Amino acid sequence: MNKNEPIINLKDICFSYPGQEPVHNKLNLKLYSTDKVGLLGPNGSGKTTLFHIIMGLLKPSTGQIEIFGKDVSKEKDFGVVRQKIGLLFQDADDQLFSPTVLEDVAFGPLNIGKSNTEAKKIAMDTLDFLGLAGFENRITHKLSGGEKKLVSFATVLAMQPKFLLLDEPATALDEKTKARLIDILHELDLPCLVISHDSEFLVKTTDSIYTMKNGKIIRDADQQLHCHYHSHFHGASPHKHQKLD
Predict the structure, then answer these.
(1) pLDDT category, 1, cuts 50, 70, 90?
(2) Which helix (H) or strand (E) holds 10?
(3) How many domains does the structure of the chain reveal?
């Protein structure tokens, strides 16, 4: 595919849930093979809904969806999309359904025709890459929240996607695991769209920040998120920052 052509191209997307105000109102979005984009916005602004529309889990009332240069609108079209675009759900329990970790991670490769041996190797290699070696026989529902999140990510990576949609990937992770996830995303070097309320996480993992507002996606070129570090002679003592006009 030509690098100058978008992987994801949404044109004038409109979507509403029954009996509710529009979530998306002629939303437009283009994402390319070199893009690493963060997406901010308040709860209910339509960020997760956007991901579900891209994956064909929800259908817009109007608008056009192009993925990898092809118009997609029917369920059979999205079957191909789901093999190439990896979606990490916000809630890991929506992604994990098999008794053991190995079964969950191997499910995707098996579903696209890999042999049992091939699927097991892919699953084991993926777990090892994520620092989860030894987890293969763990009972999925007994994992901690952070462990479930990483295993969910393993199920996504086992499909060897070309683009990642990550919905709050840092939720439930402790600082050490979050730092490891940041390193993993750099190692992968895959294009991605990342939803997070953690602006510092987005600064460390993406190159651009978009905002969901009034049913549209806005990129403010003048607004740059950054990490703020400062020190005080008596920094250990309680103190306030005064905003200057």
Answers:
(1) low
(2) strand 8-15
(3) 1
Domain contains 71:
no
Greatest extent of the chain over all pairs of C-alpha atoms, in Å: 65
pLDDT tens figures, 193-213: 999 999 999 999 999 999 999
Question: Whole-model pTM?
Answer: 0.88
Which CATH number covers residue 112?
A: 3.40.50.300
Q: Which residues contact 102 (CB under 8 A, 6 or more apart)?
A: 120, 123, 124, 127, 136, 137
What DSSP character marks residue 91? Answer: S
Beta bridge partners of 18: none
Element (H, E) at 63: strand 62-67
Each residue of 41-55: pLDDT tens digit?
999 999 999 999 999
5: nearest Cα among 34, 26, 27, 28: 34
Query: Does residue 132 lie within any of the structural domains?
Result: yes
Q: Is residue 234 in a domain?
A: no
Q: 71 forms bridges with which residues in the sheet? A: 66
Inside any domain, residue 21: no
List the domain range (segments joined by +) for residue 190: 36-48+82-218
pLDDT per position as a tens digit, 86-130: 999 999 999 999 999 999 999 999 999 999 999 999 999 999 999
pLDDT for the residue 220: 60
